[in-house]
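Q: I'm building a small set of examples for a reading group on sequence design. Run inverse folding on the following structure and report the sequence directly after it, with nothing in between.
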């Protein structure tokens, strides 16, 4: 059988246990009040006026409304954490939330810096994305009066970052690309970054050849249409396939334009040009309006 030993209890041991429990309880009470005192002290410190941010400065904006940014930041730092600690205290500002909210609401923002100036000023420095191109829907409007309506700015990666005001004429190169199931264009990419940059490189190459691209239609079919500027209502276009190697077809076009008979005919009848067709391997076909 297992060895059993009785625990000897005497008045003295009982008294020692009682004193030990009383001592432990006293220590717990002391630590509790110290903790409460520390929380109260930190809460008071968080509200101390010298360390509370009251001034929001916004720099670097041109199109983004600086006042709107300041109002958003003020909203983010208003109130308290768990009713005790003031969010506007310079040491515990919700910087991650400020950054997230600015980038979400003002998508023209490309770079963002948040810096404390002293204890009471917060400096927000914003670098805006430059609008190099426009996305204007999935197809060219049949009503020419609506050209330039409902467009969005694109950056050099094909990222839609802001609504664009109405532009008459061809101030910006326009993309007409379906966005699939996306309902809200803001924040979407019109194409993969690699494809977009390839198209831009092709457009730059066409421009260097003396032609003047103004828009591209990239529909769900296999064919792309690169429209060129013209003085007549119907703009000429360059046809090519989605699967085409753009470097190769640009080289083919360059070779054709360097031939005097092609160059002279196309340039002399440019306003009557219907299309230049680059869809067939190593061939450059063209047609004029009758």
């Amino acid at each position: 059988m297992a060895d059993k030993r009785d625990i000897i209890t005497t008045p003295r041991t009982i008294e020692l246990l009682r004193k030990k429990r009383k001592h432990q309880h006293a220590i717990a009470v002391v630590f509790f009040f110290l903790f409460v005192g520390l929380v109260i002290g930190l809460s008071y410190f968080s509200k101390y006026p010298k360390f509370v941010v009251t001034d929001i400065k916004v720099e670097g904006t041109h199109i983004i409304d600086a006042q709107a940014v300041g109002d958003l930041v003020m909203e983010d730092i208003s109130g308290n954490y768990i009713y005790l600690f003031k969010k506007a205290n310079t040491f515990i500002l919700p910087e991650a939330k400020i950054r997230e909210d600015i980038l979400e609401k003002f998508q023209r923002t490309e770079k963002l810096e948040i810096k404390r100036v002293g204890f009471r000023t917060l400096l927000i420095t914003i670098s805006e994305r430059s609008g190099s191109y426009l996305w204007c829907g999935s197809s060219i409007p049949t009503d020419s009066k609506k050209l330039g309506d409902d467009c969005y700015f694109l950056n050099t990666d094909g990222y839609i970052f802001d609504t664009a005001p109405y532009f008459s004429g061809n101030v910006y190169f326009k993309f007409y690309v379906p966005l699939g199931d996306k309902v809200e264009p803001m924040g979407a990419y019109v194409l993969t970054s690699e494809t977009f940059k390839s198209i831009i490189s092709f457009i730059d190459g066409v421009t260097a050849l003396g032609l003047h691209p103004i828009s591209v239609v990239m529909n769900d079919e296999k064919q792309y249409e690169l429209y060129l500027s013209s003085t007549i209502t119907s703009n000429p276009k360059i046809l090519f396939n989605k699967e085409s190697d753009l470097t190769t077809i640009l080289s083919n076009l360059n070779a054709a334009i360097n031939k005097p008979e092609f160059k002279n005919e196309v340039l002399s009848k440019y306003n009557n040009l219907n299309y230049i067709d680059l869809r067939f391997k190593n061939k450059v076909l063209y047609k004029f309006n009758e």
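The helical segments are 11-46, 66-76, 95-105, 193-208, 246-257, 260-268.
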